[in-house]
Amino acid sequence: MSVSVFEHPILSGLLGDEPIAAQFALSAEITAMLRFETALAVAEEEAGAIPKGAAAAIATACNTLKPDIAALRDATARDGVSVPELVRQLRAMLNPDLAAHVHFAATSQDVIDTALVLRLEIVLEEIRQPMDALVALLDTVDARFGNRELMAHTRMQRAVPIKVSDKLSSWREPLVEMRDALGRLQKTVLRLQFGGAAGTLDRLGDKKAIVSARLAKEVGLADRGCWHTNRTPFAELAGWLSQLTGVLGKIGQDIALMAQNEVGGTSSALAHKQNPVAAEILVTLARFNAAVVSGMHSALVHENERSGSAWTLEWMLLPQMVVAAGCALSTATRLVGSIEDLSAETNSGPNP
Amino acid sequence: MSVSVFEHPILSGLLGDEPIAAQFALSAEITAMLRFETALAVAEEEAGAIPKGAAAAIATACNTLKPDIAALRDATARDGVSVPELVRQLRAMLNPDLAAHVHFAATSQDVIDTALVLRLEIVLEEIRQPMDALVALLDTVDARFGNRELMAHTRMQRAVPIKVSDKLSSWREPLVEMRDALGRLQKTVLRLQFGGAAGTLDRLGDKKAIVSARLAKEVGLADRGCWHTNRTPFAELAGWLSQLTGVLGKIGQDIALMAQNEVGGTSSALAHKQNPVAAEILVTLARFNAAVVSGMHSALVHENERSGSAWTLEWMLLPQMVVAAGCALSTATRLVGSIEDLSAETNSGPNP
Amino acid sequence: MSVSVFEHPILSGLLGDEPIAAQFALSAEITAMLRFETALAVAEEEAGAIPKGAAAAIATACNTLKPDIAALRDATARDGVSVPELVRQLRAMLNPDLAAHVHFAATSQDVIDTALVLRLEIVLEEIRQPMDALVALLDTVDARFGNRELMAHTRMQRAVPIKVSDKLSSWREPLVEMRDALGRLQKTVLRLQFGGAAGTLDRLGDKKAIVSARLAKEVGLADRGCWHTNRTPFAELAGWLSQLTGVLGKIGQDIALMAQNEVGGTSSALAHKQNPVAAEILVTLARFNAAVVSGMHSALVHENERSGSAWTLEWMLLPQMVVAAGCALSTATRLVGSIEDLSAETNSGPNP
Amino acid sequence: MSVSVFEHPILSGLLGDEPIAAQFALSAEITAMLRFETALAVAEEEAGAIPKGAAAAIATACNTLKPDIAALRDATARDGVSVPELVRQLRAMLNPDLAAHVHFAATSQDVIDTALVLRLEIVLEEIRQPMDALVALLDTVDARFGNRELMAHTRMQRAVPIKVSDKLSSWREPLVEMRDALGRLQKTVLRLQFGGAAGTLDRLGDKKAIVSARLAKEVGLADRGCWHTNRTPFAELAGWLSQLTGVLGKIGQDIALMAQNEVGGTSSALAHKQNPVAAEILVTLARFNAAVVSGMHSALVHENERSGSAWTLEWMLLPQMVVAAGCALSTATRLVGSIEDLSAETNSGPNP
Fold this sequence. Notes:
The structure is a homotetramer. By secondary structure, the first copy, chain A, is mostly helical. Chain A has helices at residues 12-15, 18-23, 26-47, 54-64, 69-79, 83-92, 96-99, 108-145, 164-189, 208-219, 232-258, 277-298, 308-337; strands at 149-154, 157-163. Chain A has a domain at 12-29 and 106-199 and 226-346: Up-down Bundle (Fumarase C, Chain A, domain 2), CATH 1.20.200. Chain A starts with 11 loop residues before the first helix and ends in a 15-residue tail after the last helix. Chains in contact: A-B, A-C, A-D, B-C, B-D, C-D.
């Protein structure tokens, strides 16, 4: 089905991003959740919080689980979250004496948040690479055409001539700044969530710290304490994604304006393939994320020790923002790669 | 894949609405598009704009087309819209002398907008029915418990006792008002879009009016002139949908507050099935639509005779808003249906 | 001070609307609040809910009150609302035996909501008139230039020639539709709020209905029952206002594009007075309201019998949306009035 | 007038922040603009771009200017920006041979953006201090009550007992993270804007770099190149501000829930002074910024070398976001300072 353009069989070709969307596929999600459960068992066994041998048995269950999706769906409609049923399915695969050690001391949010972070880790690298490539491509275009003249426009009116290089710099600089900020963002976002029922890991007693540290190491995330009600990492990520689509939207808007026929644009005919579709889509994606980012900020008001309403809102918004950003990057790269000459417009138009 | 919760194999059980989502499935979309093309041919043949016999041939092509989805996807990535390729596939099914009569004088936007409206027609009826049912259910609850006392709360503090009936009225009234507004909204939204390349249907010459009227009749929509750049109908629909989720979100928030254990709520244990998941989800859906409605209003700035960027933004947002509204309605109905007694709280708590 | 452009000594010349802003001045606000208190006393005296003579004394107090603004400010910081202190000041002007009859059975929200509605009544008429005038102006422009040719643009590319009249119609139609919807909107919004502490007017006993009806008549609003927690009227108003600025923003965007020098625009120089400032501002105001409307929808989740947080949010947003709409109307009228010829562009540009 | 609550004579006591609002007063704005012009003259004289003696004369004019506000207002309505008229007024104070050296090579945006940044520099320090104070206050509360028990709530239901200290940590941690991010944000935002007509400072020839560096030093900002179309610094600031109000909104929401009478809250009566007004306002301010941040992201699509529409949108939104954040900080500090005991709730309620 196709409520979302990102998964629409046709529109995802225009507005989707397959590699990033793949990280939000159910299979990737469940894999990440099971990775958490497996790692938790390893950490807890090492700390003596669960018996020797439990981890290996749990790992086997995780590796061989064939999740009953219909049951997960039904349970989620009731529980608001899939973890209790997933844990139930895992436990059903184990001897009764081992079953209770699955998911020991953890809560649903630990699994869901960490599993999301594990996929965001991959996604952010998948975004870094095309950012680097786009910056490099802008440098290439600059090397080819940078010295040509271009008419600057302010307030939608011709201003003074600049170089193509100046225009390219105005596209490049914010991208470079945002890429430089990505490392910091990764530090902010890529952390283990592990807090138990109410954030205090009470059931682990004095083994809290050691299990948490070991679990973080096992899943390759930072151990910076429970952040179950601190949603600023995701709000900051959402802001960064929306800034990225905004910066790319500016490139799109500029190119759509330069591609106007009167300005010396792409074509004089209505041939679809020459329409500045990619340029327009960049503006669309910027407006999309600019609207949606508002919901991610709204979700910061996360009451008490777990807000079902605020937390669920993140699930509705963040994956879409990530895919929109990925799509904008690939679209911008394709668009900039197709630039043949930005300078024509200074030679045309009624006011040369 | 599951970028969107509305199509997520598990989360759609919590946040989706299958009957409404079905209207946004690709098959429903293509069916509606082909319905437009078929009806257009009928109208144009009757008006003498295309030859006798063309309509029947075109109808057959539409009825038997097996769309090449991969080609549609590739073409859409290039053209920004699927219609040119869909028309190409239709034309390839016809004799060369008839091929040109497919989609004659129409433009992609005519097909896409009208096909969306045709599905919204179904969807709005699908929303009306549960609205009626929910109002009736509130009346039933009122008949059972309305006379009991309930403590009113203002600014999150106990105020004065009211009746359960008063609380139910505060939920019912806005629903009734919105249902009463639905007929008007349907009039606003359910109109044929038919304007041709630039909204003027030039290629039909003096047959414009007759073809337009006949086409409208054939697809069962009002003929109120071309509205290709007037996106207020969709903004108004988006506003209505967000008002609906807002009104239901208020019910959810109220119930979540009443279900607090300290207020005499559902349970004293952490049993998942007794968590007020449905109540929380209503708040989530309200916040979701409240964020997204902003993008639909942003899309009103639809430049020139067709804005690729503003138009595409609608596709990203409106279907999600509709499904969110449908899900909120069914969730609210389920939740209100589970009310056993709203009055407990006046008998409990530290300040009786 | 100038946190808000609408009250900035300089920027309000560009972005403000004095007549509408005047309705949100403190003096207008207090006048409307006192009008409620006076009318309430009249209604309650007639119904026998307060003693004969009380209404005249209360009216005198309302007419002669010199509000202590500093005290109102301090009290509001504590109470969240100015009414308790305003009532205290009124009561202090009256004999002790009459004092208690001021504001009898009413609550702060009754005063604040009704006083806002009373000013919105004026404001909506102030918006209707320039809407009519703008439609008439568009007709005048059409009569002068409508027959000239203009190049249509789709997806930012030249499409086919249309008439100036077609362009003007695309601006005119949504305005006409919105103006036609204004009467309905007025019916939705212009209603008395009167519910007392928790919406049930308990203190009036069996005089509820008669006092409410008389009060409504006295202030000239409809008596449609208490709507203290039903914020859909304001969400609908916000949506209408944002649709209006969106429709005007489309006009602005179109003109900014047509005014590009290369398209045969206003000037070839950078002279500021020829910049399409008014056209740009229309886009700005559309984007402003499109963002802010989201907050008005968020405020629909109005928990319990009065939500301090959701209610206060309306105060932060709605007045700004109204002024933005008023400014957009006057700006659009000025801009359309300055059109000398929309047709030049078909005669210029590199692809004639 | 009072379109904006931030400048409302009464409501600003509840929702305003005087010291921060003072930075957005017209006088502060003009002072900052003149500081730019004075510093520019110093830098340009030193570089030989304007004659010796010009800087002193320009400084005198800037120091003694009595701006004609009415003329600035009228000109801004026409030009969209106040700088040309301000420069005209300055030039009128100087000998004709010196007049042309005022504002030499600069453009309006250089003045407006830099003058805003200069005031944001002050504002961000004014925000840092109460952040530090609030963190310290939370530590104090923790020292006093941290060991007491408190009932955790997940999904609006009682979960397990935690310590007051755990709750305070959940409030403190995001604040500490945001405060730690403030230094980085200051680096991002506090930079000179200096680009001339189209961002290239052409009129300064080979003196560009030296004038820019000297000007930056004179106004105490970083010289990181022209960023006239790169609005990510302001979007990032807006995001940080909205994250801050979101984090404080979570504190407000928690306290409003804990202050419920049934949970062992503040009072059993409806006495206004005991209503959790401050807690509710924190939620309001969070929702406000969460809506408005969307507009700041929308403004990232800043077309060409200067977008009148996108730039002006920032003026409408950013000052309000800053004041909202300042108000939220002082409100949260007042609220947390009034906490007497968070632990009562574990001893009350129907399900002990």
